[in-house]
Structures are given as C-alpha cells and as structure tokens.
C-alpha cells in the first residue's frame, strides 16, 4: 500500500488541476463560477478552474492548497456576491450552497445553479462528498475525473489508516480557534469526524452539533472534555497564538489531563474530498514527525 505524504497529496492535486479529460465522450470543462468554497475546491480537484470564486483571500486561509490561479475573478461575498461581475463572466453554471437560497432566483437569471448538498439529514458528509462530486461531474462532463478522484481519496484514507495504526491511543478533538476564548469543536456529522473514523480514530466530542457537525463553545467548555488530544486546525488568529506561548487559562484547563496539541494546516471543515484527503495526510504527517507536544 502506498505511503501518502502531504507532498504526494499536493503533487496529485496539481496533476489533477492541470490535466484534462481524455475520453472523447466527455465535454470540455464548463465555465463555472463558485460562491461556495467546497464546490470551488472540487472543481479544482476535477481539473476545472472556476472562472470566479467568492472571498478568495479567506479561501486561501481556510481551504488551503492548491491555490486558485491568478486569473480567477473575485466575486465578492459568498452570501452577497457582485451580480454585475457574475453576469459579465457569462458562466454556464454557478455553484452555491443552502445559504444562497434567498438569492437563487436572481442568480438563475444569469446561469443555472448547482447546490452543494454535502451536509444533509443523513449526517454522513464523507459519503455525501462522493455523491456531490459525481453529481457535479455529471453537470460539467468530468465523470472519469470524478471516478479517479474518489478512488484516489479512498486509497489515501486506507494508506493513512495503515500509517496511524496504534499511533493515537486517545481520542482526538478537531477544533478551530475563533479567538482567545471561543472555539468550534467538531463531532458527529462533521467531515473531520468522518475522516477520523475512516482512518481508525475517534473524535472526542460527542456533544450536540449543528447541521454542519460543529459546536461553537467558550473556553470554559474545555474543562469538561474527556481525556483527549487536540487537533488545532489552521488558521489560528494571531492573538490566540499567545495562548501557547506561556501560562494561560487554556493551559491551566488542559495541563492536568496531559493533553497534547497537534497543529495542522488548513483543511476546510465544511469541505470536499480534497479537504478530507488533506486533513488525513496532515494528521498522519504530524504524528509520524512527532509534532505533537505537551501543552
């Protein structure tokens, strides 16, 4: 079984983004604009560069590599895009999510829409990523690319499971730091929890979660957590980084439990198969490089 590393993952992503369909029956890539970051990332993974993406600076911070090409047009806010810019791009399709439903009719005056439906009542986002990937590929004529992407993702997760066998004896708590006193924890129904399960690990958070599998909590909630190690996923606000540089309420709450922190690069929490693979590989790299250290 191949040993996937972050370098392997980025190389595969770059190759996918640069290659084009080879089957004659597949149509050329459509002109797709993406208000939804998950769909933008999936397009890139399918070898299709979106003509426009919303909030690109934040996309780079939260979604991670591969970077959007310089020619991709900025569309404005994800929930309040520039309709003039969208219309000027003359897209064949606009990628949205449920937060765009209030403007869907206006968008469809410009082009048909495709909605990201990963986070659904089934609360199985990793499986839904595969369904969404195939549905999007059907719309843009990239079916063979979708099959290859799904197969590659399954292979990466299987390889990471093998790499991590016996490496993490305690449950892991995926989180984003919002500020020095507030966090997003990820449990049931989250992409992170699904990936942890796929590689043979367990999410430590079993409390109530939103439709997207997250729970926004204050720092005091950390005192009630079971013994676990923290997966701190980028980006981390600069002010919050000071929590790790000396005595803090954070440290006092967790030191008694011997909690470790594992710092991971960005992998979009509400993302796609590319995010799932990146999160898994980064986690394996962190453990094998012994980057986990006591608080």
From TrEMBL:
<dbReference type="InterPro" id="IPR002491">
    <property type="entry name" value="ABC_transptr_periplasmic_BD"/>
</dbReference>
<dbReference type="GO" id="GO:1901678">
    <property type="term" value="P:iron coordination entity transport"/>
</dbReference>
<comment type="similarity">
    <text>Belongs to the bacterial solute-binding protein 8 family.</text>
</comment>
<keyword id="KW-0406">Ion transport</keyword>
<protein>
    <submittedName>
        <fullName>Iron-siderophore ABC transporter substrate-binding protein</fullName>
    </submittedName>
</protein>
<keyword id="KW-0408">Iron</keyword>
<feature type="signal peptide">
    <location>
        <begin position="1"/>
        <end position="24"/>
    </location>
</feature>
<keyword id="KW-0732">Signal</keyword>
<keyword id="KW-0410">Iron transport</keyword>
<dbReference type="Pfam" id="PF01497">
    <property type="entry name" value="Peripla_BP_2"/>
</dbReference>
<feature type="domain" description="Fe/B12 periplasmic-binding">
    <location>
        <begin position="31"/>
        <end position="291"/>
    </location>
</feature>
<dbReference type="GO" id="GO:0030288">
    <property type="term" value="C:outer membrane-bounded periplasmic space"/>
</dbReference>
<dbReference type="InterPro" id="IPR006311">
    <property type="entry name" value="TAT_signal"/>
</dbReference>
<keyword id="KW-0813">Transport</keyword>
<dbReference type="InterPro" id="IPR051313">
    <property type="entry name" value="Bact_iron-sidero_bind"/>
</dbReference>
């Amino acid at each position: 079984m191949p040993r996937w590393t972050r370098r392997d993952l980025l190389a595969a992503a770059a190759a996918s983004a640069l290659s084009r369909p080879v089957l004659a029956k597949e149509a050329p890539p459509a002109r797709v604009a993406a208000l939804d970051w998950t769909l933008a990332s999936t397009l890139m993974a399918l070898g299709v560069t979106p003509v426009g993406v919303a909030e690109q600076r934040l996309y780079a911070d939260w979604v991670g590599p591969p970077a959007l090409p310089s020619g991709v047009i900025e569309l404005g806010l994800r929930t309040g895009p520039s309709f003039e810019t969208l219309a000027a791009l003359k897209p064949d399709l606009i990628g949205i999510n449920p937060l765009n439903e209030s403007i869907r009719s206006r968008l469809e005056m410009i082009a048909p829409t495709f909605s990201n439906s990963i986070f659904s009542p089934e609360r199985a986002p990793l499986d839904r990523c595969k369904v969404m990937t195939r549905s999007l590929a059907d719309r843009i004529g990239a079916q063979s690319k979708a099959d290859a992407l799904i197969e590659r993702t399954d292979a990466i997760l299987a390889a990471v499971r093998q790499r991590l066998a016996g490496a993490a004896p305690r449950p892991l708590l995926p989180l984003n730091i919002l500020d020095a006193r507030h966090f997003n924890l990820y449990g049931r129904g989250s992409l992170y929890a699904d990936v942890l399960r796929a590689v043979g690990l367990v999410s430590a958070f079993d409390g109530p979660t939103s439709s997207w599998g997250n729970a926004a909590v204050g720092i005091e909630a950390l005192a009630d957590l079971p013994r676990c190690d923290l997966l701190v996923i980028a980006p981390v606000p600069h002010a919050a980084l000071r929590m790790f540089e000396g005595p803090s309420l954070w440290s006092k709450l967790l030191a008694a439990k011997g909690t470790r922190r594992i710092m991971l690069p960005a992998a979009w929490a509400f993302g796609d198969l590319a995010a799932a693979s990146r999160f898994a590989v980064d986690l394996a790299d962190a453990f094998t490089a012994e980057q986990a250290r006591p608080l």
